[in-house]
User: What shape does this take?
Amino acid sequence: MDQLRELIKGEIGRNIVSLGIVESTNSLAMELAEKGASHGTVVIADSQTKGRGRMGRPWISPSGGNIYMSVILTHPMDLKEATFLTILAGVACCGALRNATGLPVEIKWPNDLMVSHKKLGGILTELKSCGREMLYAIIGIGINVNIALEDFPPEVRKIATSIKDEKGKTESRTFLIAEILNELDRWYHVFAQQGKNSLLNEWRKLTSMMGKPVQVTMGEEIISGLAHDIDEGGMLIVRLPSGALKRISFGDLVVLR
Ligand code: BTN
Assistant: This one.
C-alpha cells in the first residue's frame, strides 16, 4: 500500500482502507461514509463474497489480482448533478485503463468498460441523499485484471475478458489503481470547475456505439433503435424506427452488429 500512496497525486486515494476478503467494498464504503469518512477515502479488497453489480446482479469477485474498490465522495453536490458522477467515473476509468495498458478500452452505456466487445469491468455508483442534496456518493469499480478466465463461471467467460487475457501478460494492480484514482481526481475537478461539457465530449470520444443499432431492455420493456447521443443527465438518447427520440435512464444495452 505504501507504493500506491506514493503514486497518488490528489485528494482521491489519500486515505486508503485495504483489506483481504470483504462482503462488498461498496457496502463497507457506505458504512465508513455514514461514520464520517473523508472525501476521497478508498476501500480496496482482494476478493468479495457479496460483490454487487448493476440491476441487483452479483459481481463474481474471486481473489487473484483483480480490482475491487469503492471511492467515497462527500463534497456537497445537488442530487441532479450527482447522477452525472456515473459518466465521470466511466470517463476516468476508461482513460486510465487506456493509458496504463494501451488496450482500446471503450465505454458501453451506461458505464461498462469493454474490450473486443467483451466486458473488462463495470462501475456501480450508489448515492445517499437528503431532499435535493447528495450526502455522499460511492463509486464502486470492478476490473478484471490478472484473472484467468477459467476462474469465472462458464456463462461469464463468454461475455467477459481480463487485461491478462487481452495482453497475454499480467499488469501491476497497484499501478492501475493509482492511474484510475488520479484520473478520477482530475475529472472531478474538471467537472466541479468547468461543468459537464468537456466530460460529455470525452465520453463521446470513448464510445463507438453512437449511430449503431441497439436494443435496451428496461424490465419488461424492450426498445430498439439507433444509439443517438447521451444527454446532460447521462441518459441515453435512442432514435426509434419512427424517427422519434427517446431518452433512457436505465437498462441493459446490447449493440447489434
Ligand atoms: C456492473 O454491473 O457492471 C457494475 C459492477 C461493479 C462491481 C464493483 S466491484 C467493487 C464494488 N463493490 C461492489 O460490491 N460492487 C462494485
In short: The mean pLDDT is 95. Residues 6 and 224 are 48 Å apart (CA to CA). The chain has eight helices and 13 strands. The helical segments are 2-7, 25-34, 79-82, 85-101, 154-157, 163-167, 173-194, 197-205.
